[in-house]
Amino acid sequence: MAKILMFRSPEKMIEHFSEHGKETGCDSAEEYLIKANAVIQNPESQSKYETDEGDNDKIYYLSQTGEIVFVSTDGYIRTYFATDDEYFERQ
After folding, report:
1. Is 57 within the bounds of a domain?
2. Does any domain span residue 28?
């Protein structure tokens, strides 16, 4: 079974859920966390390392749904939201 990644704190998860929950179709912070992990674990998700900000976060992007997840170098989910192919390519 794959490791479940978390946000750095419950407060960070709630903050990001408040900002992006509706666009990702989530009704709760817990569902937001589950869906972010589903993108990370989905074999159809594309992944690469972020270079534009120099922090080298890993990005997971599922083009079929437009869902994107950023994971810090120390293994925490930074954010999860809906976007498009162009945004992923720019990262």
Report:
1. yes
2. yes
- Residues β-bridged to residue 59: 48, 70
Nearest to 45 by CA among 65, 26, 28: 65
pLDDT at 54: 65
pLDDT tens track for 49-83: 987 666 789 999 999 999 999 999 999 999 999 99
2 part of a folded domain? no
Radius of gyration of the chain (CA): 12
CB within 8 A of 67, min separation 6: which ones?
A: 24, 35, 39, 61, 80, 81, 82
Give the CATH number, domain containing residue 35. Answer: 3.10.450.200
CA 24 to centroid of chain Cα atoms? 10
Residue 53 is given by DSSP the state: S
Domain span at 74: 10-90
